[in-house]
Amino acid sequence: MNVRIAGTGSYLPAKTLSNDDLSKIMDTSHDWIIQRTGIHQRHIAVDGELTSDMATKAAEKALKAANLSPEDIDFIVCATTTPDLTFPATAVIIQAKLGLKKDSFALDVQAVCSGFVYALSIGKNFIKAGQGQKGLIIGAEKMSSLLDWNDRSTAVLFGDGAGAVVIEATKDEGILS
Length: 177
Description:
The chain has helices at 19-23, 30-37, 51-65, 90-98, 115-128, 152-155; strands spanning 2-11, 16-18, 41-43, 75-79, 105-109, 134-142, 160-170. By secondary structure, the chain is an alpha/beta fold.
């Protein structure tokens, strides 16, 4: 049994923060940021927009791309360092927002930058072990809620958003590693 990516989706908040915007609140400039990072702007969640909101929107797009409904999904693995709450897991909140079937399961993985890769590996192993046939793997972060907006060594690097993939069992060639 192999595992393949059946659909992908992403979500970025509409609000953006440009390098020029940052230069008004900290000691930096557009040119300084571009020379060191290549970043021109970052997307920032609006007040009240949660990590699970962004993740749900990305998941909905991934489901649509895979031509599946939430009822087809057996599990969610969500990689995030910025959960909505300490408990329950953000994946469980997404599970409820999407309306997954009652026997599905959901969990969070926190591994910061490598979180999505770990989540994908975990999901792949769930399928290979027979614990499900289809899963949602989500990476979602609301870093704007953690940043020190006066620290140009970090604030210029991060924004908010989410990406999701639907994975499923296949007899064909799938994810290699």
